[in-house]
């Protein structure tokens, strides 16, 4: 199996390195990832500046892949259209430091890279690890769990272009309670901004760290992850509101 591995934390992120080692148990892994961190870049792409590319070696000084001076979606585009000698059978994005559940799916560069892979009709899986404390995360252990989940997804032979979002609960919580297939919670998070004044008297704001989903939704990814379950959510990128489209087909339009 040919596997393309990418992320939004950057090619030197420990989560990517740990997941690469686990994915090598499934097949040949090539990394094409951002040269620097691109967290919350969403599905942005680079249009006005060149995409510089450099080969990167692993700890054994063996070829690992390419670092791209661009966004996660850029990396997948370049990999599929220019860099890879043969198309991958699977695209994996991660292992992200921090969960990508709920409305965060829309902001996540990790998920965006997987969506880009699905654009190209490749089975694509985004994988993230929740953290609850500011301490080093156990990426090797989480990567082993991620590989097991990926294996089970592939065992069901999903159609080409299938897209999945996987979140692993914080390992600080204790034993994982299981795996749940749940929908995305699309309720807006509670967010705050810290208002400050710089030495020149100019007002600026920093996004507060305490974001959270204010409403309980027990059958959603946010609540299942909070309760200690691995969440697996199938996604699609067609944003059309089919119910509203059906209603609008009966509207009368005039110029």
Question: Can you describe what's shown?
Answer:
This protein has six helices and eleven strands. The chain has helices at 14-23, 72-83, 109-119, 139-155, 221-226, 242-248; strands at 2-6, 28-34, 53-57, 63-68, 90-97, 123-129, 163-168, 178-181, 193-197, 203-207, 229-234. The protein has one domain (2-185, 215-248): Stationary-phase Survival Protein Sure Homolog, Chain: A (3-Layer(aba) Sandwich), CATH 3.40.1210.10. The radius of gyration is 19 Å and the shape is globular. The strands form two sheets. It has a nine-stranded mixed β-sheet, sandwiched between helices. A two-stranded antiparallel sheet has the order 9-10. It is α/β, with parallel strands linked by helices and 255 residues long. It is 25% helix and 25% strand.
Task: Please tell me the CATH architecture by its name.
Answer: 3-Layer(aba) Sandwich
Number of strands: 11
Q: How is the biggest beta sheet arranged? A: 9 strands, mixed
Ends apart, CA distance between termini: 55 Å
CATH 4th-level superfamily: Survival protein SurE-like phosphatase/nucleotidase
Number of domains: 1
SS class: alpha/beta
General shape? globular
CA radius of gyration: 19 Å
Oligomer: single chain
CATH fold name: Stationary-phase Survival Protein Sure Homolog, Chain: A
Average pLDDT rating:
94
Order of helices and strands: EHEEEHEHEHEEEEHEH
What proportion of the residues is helical, as a percent range? 10-25%
Q: How large is the count of helical segments?
A: 6
Instruction: Indicate the low-confidence ranges by residue numbers.
Output: none
Strand ordering within the main sheet? 3-4-2-1-5-6-7-11-8
The level-1 CATH class:
Alpha Beta
Q: What proportion of the residues form beta strands (DSSP E)? A: 25-35%
